[in-house]
Amino acid sequence: MQPSAEVNQRLARISAHLCTEFPRVGESSLTQSNCRAKGGAPGFKVAVLGAAGGIGQSLSLLMKINPLVSVLHLYDVVNTPGVTADISHMDTGAVVRGFLGQAQLEHALTGMDLVIIPAGVPRKPGMTRDDLFKINAGIVRTLCEGIAKCCPHAIVNLISNPVNSTVPIAAEVFKKAGVYDPKRLLGVTTLDVVRANTFVAEVLGVDPREVNVPVVGGHAGVTILPLLSQVKPPSSFTAEEISYLTDRIQNGGTEVVEAKAGAGSATLSMAYAAAKFADACLRGLRGDAGIVECSFVASQVTELPFFATRVRLGRGGAEEIFPLGPLNEYERAGLEKAKKELAGSIDKGVSFIRN
Ligand SMILES: NC(=O)C1=CN([C@@H]2O[C@H](COP(=O)(O)OP(=O)(O)OC[C@H]3O[C@@H](n4cnc5c(N)ncnc54)[C@H](O)[C@@H]3O)[C@@H](O)[C@H]2O)C=CC1
Ligand SMILES: O=C([O-])CC(=O)C(=O)O
C-alpha cells in the first residue's frame, strides 16, 4: 500500500525538525535535508559510524555534550532514526543529524572534521578479537572508502576490533585512494590506559584521576603492554603486583566479555574512553598545546609499521610520536612478545586490502 501524501508530509516535517536525513515511507531514493546548524555553537563536525550500537549510543550521547562539537552526524545500518530523535532532544549546542544505511554514508561523512568508528561485531565468550576480523575487516574497508571520498582530511578514530588489523586496513584503503596521511589515522587504545589507571590506583590506594599509566604496543592480549615503570606519579610495585596488574590490564576486555556472558563486550567504559580520546583530538585540532594520549598509529618507534605509544595531538592529528622511554627487563620481555603477535596482525590487515 502506498503511504498517503499526508503521511509523507508529516514525516518530512519531523525529519526537518530533527535535522535527520531518513528516507520517507515508500521512497527508495534519498533526499538531502537542507537543515542548517541553527543556533549551534561554533565548533567541529563529528561523525559516529556505528552510532546505534552498544558503544555508539553512549559515545554519541557523550559527543552531544562536548562543547567543542557543533554538528554531530550519527550513522548506522540500523536504528539511527530512534537514536537520533532521542539524542537530539538534549539541550546542548551540537546539532544532531541521523543517517541510515549505506546509501546515506556519503551524506553522513561530507564535511566532517573527526570520524569515530565503533561499527562492527563485538566478541562473545571464548572468542579472540582476531575472530572478529572476518566480519569487521569488510565493514572498516567500506567505511574508510567513504571517508577517502567524502572527508579525506578528517581525523579518524578507529575503535572496531581487531584494532591491530583494522588500522592497517584503513591505512591501505587510504593509500589506494591516494589520500593517506598517517598522522590522521588513530587506533583507539584509550580503554587500556583507562583500565590501567583504575587498576593501578586500586593497588596504590589513590584516586585514579591522579594516575597516568602509559600503555604501548597494540590492543589485544599480550600486545597490550602497560609500562608500570613509567607510572605517574612515580610508584614502585612488588613482583606480584606487576604480574597481577599486567595480566588484569591485558585481559580487561575478556573480563567484561565473560561478565556479560554473551551480551557483548565493553560498551560503557569504551564509550567513556572513546569520548575522552575524541575530546583530546578536538583540543589538538583547536590548537591546544601539550595534548598527549596513547594511540595505535603508523610509527617508527619499533621495526613494525604500526605501534601504540604516547603521541602529541595537534592540528594535523598525531604530530609527534614519543619513544618508548627506558624499559625494565620485565617490560623488554613483554615488548618482544607483543611485537611478535602484532607483526602477524598488521600483515593480516595489509594483505586483506593488497591481495
Ligand atoms: N578499541 C577498543 O578498545 C574497543 C573496541 N571494541 C569494538 O567495537 C566494536 C563495536 O562494539 P559494540 O558497540 O559493543 O557492538 P554493537 O554490536 O553493540 O554495535 C555495533 C554497531 O555497528 C553497526 N554496524 C554494523 N555494520 C555496520 C556498517 N557497515 N556500517 C555502520 N554500522 C555498522 C551495527 O548495526 C551496530 O549498531 C566491536 O568491534 C568491538 O570489538 C569494543 C570495546 C573496546
Ligand atoms: O575485549 C573486547 O572484545 C573489546 C575490547 O577491545 C576491550 O574491551 O578492550
From TrEMBL:
<keyword id="KW-0560">Oxidoreductase</keyword>
<feature type="binding site">
    <location>
        <position position="136"/>
    </location>
    <ligand>
        <name>NAD(+)</name>
    </ligand>
</feature>
<feature type="binding site">
    <location>
        <position position="195"/>
    </location>
    <ligand>
        <name>substrate</name>
    </ligand>
</feature>
<dbReference type="GO" id="GO:0005777">
    <property type="term" value="C:peroxisome"/>
</dbReference>
<dbReference type="InterPro" id="IPR001252">
    <property type="entry name" value="Malate_DH_AS"/>
</dbReference>
<feature type="binding site">
    <location>
        <position position="123"/>
    </location>
    <ligand>
        <name>substrate</name>
    </ligand>
</feature>
<comment type="subunit">
    <text>Homodimer.</text>
</comment>
<dbReference type="InterPro" id="IPR001236">
    <property type="entry name" value="Lactate/malate_DH_N"/>
</dbReference>
<feature type="binding site">
    <location>
        <position position="161"/>
    </location>
    <ligand>
        <name>substrate</name>
    </ligand>
</feature>
<keyword id="KW-0520">NAD</keyword>
<dbReference type="InterPro" id="IPR015955">
    <property type="entry name" value="Lactate_DH/Glyco_Ohase_4_C"/>
</dbReference>
<dbReference type="GO" id="GO:0006108">
    <property type="term" value="P:malate metabolic process"/>
</dbReference>
<keyword id="KW-0816">Tricarboxylic acid cycle</keyword>
<dbReference type="GO" id="GO:0006097">
    <property type="term" value="P:glyoxylate cycle"/>
</dbReference>
<feature type="domain" description="Lactate/malate dehydrogenase N-terminal">
    <location>
        <begin position="45"/>
        <end position="187"/>
    </location>
</feature>
<dbReference type="Pfam" id="PF02866">
    <property type="entry name" value="Ldh_1_C"/>
</dbReference>
<dbReference type="InterPro" id="IPR036291">
    <property type="entry name" value="NAD(P)-bd_dom_sf"/>
</dbReference>
<feature type="binding site">
    <location>
        <position position="270"/>
    </location>
    <ligand>
        <name>NAD(+)</name>
    </ligand>
</feature>
<feature type="binding site">
    <location>
        <position position="129"/>
    </location>
    <ligand>
        <name>substrate</name>
    </ligand>
</feature>
<dbReference type="GO" id="GO:0009507">
    <property type="term" value="C:chloroplast"/>
</dbReference>
<protein>
    <recommendedName>
        <fullName>Malate dehydrogenase</fullName>
        <ecNumber>1.1.1.37</ecNumber>
    </recommendedName>
</protein>
<dbReference type="GO" id="GO:0030060">
    <property type="term" value="F:L-malate dehydrogenase (NAD+) activity"/>
</dbReference>
<comment type="similarity">
    <text>Belongs to the LDH/MDH superfamily. MDH type 1 family.</text>
</comment>
<feature type="binding site">
    <location>
        <begin position="159"/>
        <end position="161"/>
    </location>
    <ligand>
        <name>NAD(+)</name>
    </ligand>
</feature>
<feature type="domain" description="Lactate/malate dehydrogenase C-terminal">
    <location>
        <begin position="189"/>
        <end position="352"/>
    </location>
</feature>
<dbReference type="InterPro" id="IPR010097">
    <property type="entry name" value="Malate_DH_type1"/>
</dbReference>
<dbReference type="GO" id="GO:0006099">
    <property type="term" value="P:tricarboxylic acid cycle"/>
</dbReference>
<dbReference type="Pfam" id="PF00056">
    <property type="entry name" value="Ldh_1_N"/>
</dbReference>
<feature type="binding site">
    <location>
        <begin position="50"/>
        <end position="56"/>
    </location>
    <ligand>
        <name>NAD(+)</name>
    </ligand>
</feature>
<dbReference type="InterPro" id="IPR022383">
    <property type="entry name" value="Lactate/malate_DH_C"/>
</dbReference>
<feature type="binding site">
    <location>
        <position position="76"/>
    </location>
    <ligand>
        <name>NAD(+)</name>
    </ligand>
</feature>
<keyword id="KW-0329">Glyoxylate bypass</keyword>
<feature type="active site" description="Proton acceptor">
    <location>
        <position position="219"/>
    </location>
</feature>
<dbReference type="InterPro" id="IPR001557">
    <property type="entry name" value="L-lactate/malate_DH"/>
</dbReference>
<keyword id="KW-0576">Peroxisome</keyword>
